[in-house]
Specification:
With 422 residues, the chain is of the alpha+beta class. It has 14 helices and 9 strands. It folds into 3 domains: 4-140, Orthogonal Bundle (Butyryl-Coa Dehydrogenase, subunit A, domain 1); 143-259, Butyryl-CoA Dehydrogenase, subunit A, domain 2 (Beta Barrel), CATH 2.40.110; 262-417, Up-down Bundle (Butyryl-CoA Dehydrogenase, subunit A, domain 3), CATH 1.20.140.10. The protein is 50% helix and 12% strand. The strands form 3 sheets. It has a 4-stranded antiparallel beta sheet, with no helix packed on it. Helix 3 runs antiparallel to helix 4, helix 4 (99-116) runs antiparallel to helix 8 (261-298) and helix 8 runs antiparallel to helix 13. Bound molecules: flavin-adenine dinucleotide. Residues 107, 144-147, 151-154, 156, 185-187, 235, 238, 240, 397, 400-404, 406-407 line the site of flavin-adenine dinucleotide. The site of flavin-adenine dinucleotide has 24 residues, from strand 1, helix 6, helix 13 and helix 14.
């Protein structure tokens, strides 16, 4: 039978580390996550089972050092011309084991993109933040605090609303920012994150891009309070909670860049969020393909393996087409990020809108295909031992975040059809 490595990756432009990265993360997944993941749901609050696997990935394999420059102890991916395709490979292999772990890892890089990526490196902040991630033997996570109680989609709808709905305020007081506000849902909240990147406004209500501010706040700063983790439909390895910032003071230079540039480069954060979502989609589909190969050969219907029945084979062919298409599409978007000389800057409105289009399509295809995988396995699909139901539950959440499907639809329609009122 075909292996998942025969599902196409664009061989002509893979990262030079592709094979190596894939191999070491797959070994980690097969040894440390897949044998335990059926018990992760019960571990959603304590993360006792989950934490050792995170330590192996973030510290022992060094992923938490990924973006920082080499001279600060990092792996230097922030200036790699394979950041997109290399990142895609890492995220897809982690998501093959557990998509929630992939988002927890991916979101750790999310705020750091603002200051570690060429050409907008903020060297002073890299020097300040690198020791937290690079000089430690415990796993360290970051969070990107964007969504607020009045709505997450409007905050991400940068093109139309320009940050005008952001209620978290940043006020300058001498040489410090004073941050006040309430955020919901950041991945790695609920007590996990050591560092927050906080989306704020220096003039709440304003849609002037210069008033959009991205400010780093260490989680142990006075005035930061994280609530308890929410219990979700799945994705237990990702903790999400309320976070309050109450007169939180940080040095003025903890702002990522400054008026205008924070807004511009935050769109790159959105682009990477979309690329990551595509990689998670690919990883979930790859593993479900493996699970379906095994189950449809082992289970019998009318004396024949499931896969030898016409209707089942029809659905399996649809699944194979989806995994082939999503993987190649996701790698292509990652490559577009790497080749800004050909496709423009990753913070361009064009790259954001195209990423939204790809994420929307890939999530629709995957949600449908995972539903069909459940259908064709019948009651066996609902068996937690089969693992398909885990991906089915976990994956639906990928479709819901980053403004949900509706924001994708609006931004894509606006970009390609110049709709003016959306
Ligand atoms: C597992 C998980 C991880 C997450 N991680 C993070 C994170 O790291 N950082 C972070 O800040 N947030 C995070 N979120 C929050 C997530 O990004 C938001 O839930 C999402 O952006 C939608 O925002 P909302 O829930 O506030 O819904 P709302 O913005 O209130 O929207 C509600 C619904 O209305 C739709 N909608 C909104 N506007 C329109 C419109 N004009 N027309 C039609 N429909 C519309 C939306 O698509 C959505 O379906 C995470 C969520 C989950 C589930």
């Amino acid at each position: 039978m075909r292996t998942i490595d025969e599902i196409t990756r664009p061989l002509e432009y893979l990262s030079p580390m592709d094979r190596h990265l894939g191999k070491i993360i797959r070994r980690w997944a097969d040894e440390q996550v897949i044998p335990l993941r059926q018990r992760y749901d019960e571990d959603w609050e304590e993360h006792r089972l989950i934490e050792p696997a995170f330590k192996a990935l973030m510290v022992d394999l060094g992923l938490q050092r990924l973006l920082f420059p080499e001279d600060l102890g990092g792996m230097g991916f922030g200036h790699s011309s394979y950041l997109g395709t290399g990142g895609f490979r890492i995220f897809e292999e982690v998501a093959r084991a557990d998509s929630a772990m992939a988002v927890a890892v991916g979101v750790t890089f999310w705020p750091l993109i603002m200051v570690c990526n060429e050409p907008h490196v903020n060297r002073r902040l890299c020097e300040e933040l690198a020791p937290r991630f690079c000089d430690t033997d415990r796993p360290v996570f970051a969070a990107n605090a964007m969504t607020e109680p009045q709505g997450g989609a409007d905050i991400e709808n940068l093109d139309l609303l320009g940050g005008s709905t952001i209620q978290t305020s940043a006020t300058l007081d001498g040489d410090q920012w004073v941050v006040n506000g309430h955020k919901l849902w950041p991945t790695n909240s609920g007590g996990v994150a050591d560092l927050f990147g906080v989306v704020c406004s220096t003039n709440p209500g304003s849609s002037d891009p210069k008033d959009f501010a991205f400010i780093f706040v260490p989680a142990d700063t006075e005035g930061v309070t994280q609530g308890g983790a929410y219990q979700k439909a799945g994705m237990a390895a990702d903790k999400n909670s309320d976070v309050w910032f109450d007169n939180v003071r940080v040095p003025v230079w903890y702002r990522a860049h400054g008026p205008g540039d924070d807004f511009t480069y935050f769109k790159e954060v959105v682009t990477f969020g979309l690329m990551g979502s595509l990689a998670f989609t690919s990883g979930v589909l790859l593993n479900t393909y493996e699970l379906l190969q095994e189950a449809t050969s082992r289970l019998f219907f009318r004396g024949r393996p499931l896969k030898e029945n016409d209707d089942i084979a029809g659905r399996l062919s649809g699944f194979a087409a989806t995994v082939e298409t999503v993987r190649i599409l996701g790698f292509q978007y990652a490559r577009m990020i790497d080749r800004r000389d050909l496709y423009g800057a990753p913070w361009s409105d064009d790259m954001v809108a195209k990423g939204r289009a790809y994420k929307m399509l890939a999530c629709d295809m995957a949600v449908k295909s995972l539903g069909q995988a459940m259908d064709l396995l019948g009651a066996h699909g609902s068996d937690r031992v089969a693992d398909v139901e885990k991906h089915w539950r976990d994956f639906k959440i990928v479709q819901l975040w980053m403004g949900g499907k509706q924001l994708c639809q609006m931004e894509v329609a606006r970009h390609f059809f110049e709709c003016e009122s959306l």
